[in-house]
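FAQ: What does a multi-protein file look like?

Like this. Sequence, then tokens, then the next protein.
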Amino acid sequence: MEWEFDRLTFSREFSRNVVTRLLVERAEHGGWELERVRMTPDGTRRVVLRRKIIRQLRTFGG
């Protein structure tokens, strides 16, 4: 299975509720799921999202 990753950074000015809403929106509309959240000492949130890459097989008509 192959994954596509997206890295986001949120400054500490964004509240937890705002970040949650933004991530839920990306999950619902883009098919992303949460891979990792890292909080830095200065309050910045570094988020990694992932989603499956779906490959379509070619079909040959005859």
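And here is the next protein:
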Amino acid sequence: MTERKKHQVTEYEKCLREYHKASPRYVLILETNLPEDEKRHLFHQADLLRQCGNELLGIMKRNLEQLLRTKKYRGMRKSYSKINKSIKALQQIKELSNVQKRHLKDLQKDLRTVSDQMNEMQEVYHVTWDHCRNAMKDLCLKKCIINSGIRVAA
């Protein structure tokens, strides 16, 4: 029988733990004079919102995983980071020659085109803020949450 491998804690997970320890958390406690029926209704609405939030998280996570799985998008991310590094290296030079200035402008133009292509792919795979908002509206309407604070455009 093989032994089970222990999970190796990465540097990222260590930093994340330290961040969570250092980040402030506040709890607001208010007193109210609500009848029991209204309290139950309020807690029910909060639970429905929690369920919608979890469902939305699942939807967006699936969409993001599908986007990141594509070879084209991964290639665009790599080219974006390479171009960005090149731009930063050129910007650190105090005095640029005319050739370097032209090269910098070309790199910035390339960065914009790659960025636009990435944004288009994000729209195709529904990984945008607008899709997230609309999906949450649909989920809240499906669960009949009336006072959720989400405005539904007519």
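Q: Is there any per-entry metadata?
A: Some entries carry free-text notes. For the entry above: The chain has a mean pLDDT of 89.
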